[in-house]
């Protein structure tokens, strides 16, 4: 009761003192999209730190349903170093980049019918600093998991200061891939921060993660049983791997030469598999300048052509001189992966009563669903609804289990490492969960 009264007092204080603060720039038109945008897009920077040397860039899309009451999400892309523009224009956002041969003009955009913004307000955040259009005014030093968690928390507090109308909206932290290391800790930081004077409390309700990295040393080992289960390696090779490596395939003792030898054999069988979606051709997605138009990832090349067009930068209100070249995935950020496992954060968040949706594309070999199911099982929570199919139009779209700790696990049948592979199924799954339905 005391926390509720404090929350209301702070809300009134924020509403009365911050309604005149600049709240970013409204973008009504984007190069490549015909006509005005059919949704409300705001872009801007939030300065982090006392001197605000770090400038985190965001895209905010209002819910197309009921923005005053619909949930508010922050979306963090993986990497670390991927721009959230990828999620906005490829995975869960209201825009899709048309995959067509680049002819030197601005690549085309069209509306997506599968956007999560149909039911939620979403802040797409470029983080860590150096990703996307986020930048530092001073030479960029080394950042890392714990530093980024503090900065994201500060970002959210400052963003809500500038957008007090969203303070009462249910808030969810969301993301995929490497965000699995960050989101659970951000939820924990918000939960603790809500008890500290005198920032506006965040109406935290839970979090959503897709194919999340959680405990990498353990999870990488699950690529072996996944490869066997998908008939990518023989029974004999699988049995030899188990016998000589004893479940540890990627951090092998150098003295275990037999294991190293068999792992090398495994690598030969799988090196040409597209580990992000094993059914797709293994075309190069790392060097976007040489990517083939036939490749699924050709759109990444188009992203970079689009985002580096001067008219696009002007429309997005990018600070001049802040970024010489936008890249989809910045591999050069000095980054310290100093959280070994996010499992303890999941446990704390469950104890504190927060909802969670953990989903997994079942054709992802980067973070196999086998691995995700293993760490969820390690939490030892009782099952409230056991493994069963979830359906779309009387067809199996995946399988789901719900737990007593308000956690829902779901696979998306045929999906890869991110929602971009099956955006319709991912959208339907999210809409059901966020509204409180069983999948």
UniProtKB/TrEMBL annotation:
Q: Where is the signal peptide?
A: 1-23
Q: Does the keyword Signal apply?
A: yes
Question: Which GO-annotated molecular functions does the record name?
Answer: serine-type carboxypeptidase activity; sinapoyltransferase activity
- Decide whether keyword Nucleus is in the record: no
Protein keywords: Disulfide bond, Glycoprotein, Signal
Q: Known InterPro entries for this protein?
A: AB_hydrolase_fold, Peptidase_S10
Q: Which residues form a coiled coil?
A: none
BP GO terms, sorted:
proteolysis; secondary metabolic process
Which family does this protein fall into? Belongs to the peptidase S10 family.
Name of the protein this chain belongs to = Uncharacterized protein
Which species? Capsella rubella
């Amino acid at each position: 009761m005391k926390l509720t009264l404090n929350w209301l007092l702070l809300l009134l204080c924020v509403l009365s003192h911050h309604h005149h603060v600049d709240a970013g720039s409204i973008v009504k038109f984007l190069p490549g999209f015909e006509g005005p945008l059919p949704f409300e897009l705001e872009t801007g920077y939030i300065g982090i730190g006392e001197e605000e040397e770090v400038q985190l860039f965001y895209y905010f899309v209002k819910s197309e349903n009921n923005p005053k009451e619909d949930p508010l999400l922050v979306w963090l892309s993986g990497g670390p170093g991927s721009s959230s523009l990828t999620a906005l224009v490829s995975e869960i956002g209201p825009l899709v980049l048309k995959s067509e041969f680049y002819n030197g003009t601005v690549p085309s955009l069209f509306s997506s019918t599968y956007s999560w913004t149909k039911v939620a307000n979403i802040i797409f955040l470029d983080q860590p600093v150096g990703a996307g259009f986020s930048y530092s005014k001073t030479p960029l030093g080394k950042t890392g998991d714990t530093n980024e968690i503090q900065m994201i928390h500060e970002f959210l507090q400052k963003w809500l200061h500038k957008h007090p109308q969203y303070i009462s909206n249910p808030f969810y932290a969301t993301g995929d891939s490497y965000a699995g290391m960050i989101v659970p800790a951000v939820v924990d930081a918000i939960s603790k921060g809500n008890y500290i004077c005198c920032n506006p409390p965040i109406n935290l309700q839970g979090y959503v993660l897709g194919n999340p990295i959680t405990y990498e040393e353990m999870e990488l080992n699950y690529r072996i049983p996944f490869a066997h289960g998908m008939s990518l390696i023989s029974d004999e090779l699988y049995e030899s791997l188990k016998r000589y490596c004893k479940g540890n395939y990627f951090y092998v003792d150098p003295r275990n030469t037999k294991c190293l030898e068999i792992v090398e054999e495994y690598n030969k069988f799988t090196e040409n598999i597209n580990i992000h979606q094993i059914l797709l051709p293994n075309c190069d997605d790392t060097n976007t300048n040489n990517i083939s138009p036939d490749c699924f990832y050709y759109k990444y090349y188009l992203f970079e052509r689009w985002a580096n067009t001067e008219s696009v930068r002007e429309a997005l209100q990018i600070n001049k001189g802040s970024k010489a070249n936008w890249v989809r995935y910045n591999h050069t950020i000095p980054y310290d992966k100093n959280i070994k496992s996010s499992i303890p954060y999941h446990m704390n968040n469950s104890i504190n009563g927060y909802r969670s949706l953990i989903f997994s594309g079942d054709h992802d070999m980067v973070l196999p669903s086998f691995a995700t199911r293993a760490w969820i099982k390690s939490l030892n929570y009782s099952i409230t609804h056991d493994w069963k199919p979830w359906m779309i139009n009387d067809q199996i779209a995946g399988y789901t289990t719900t737990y007593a700790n308000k956690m829902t696990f779901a696979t998306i049948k045929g999906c890869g490492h991110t929602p971009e592979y099956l955006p319709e199924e991912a959208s339907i799954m999210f809409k059901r969960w966020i509204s409180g339905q069983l999948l």
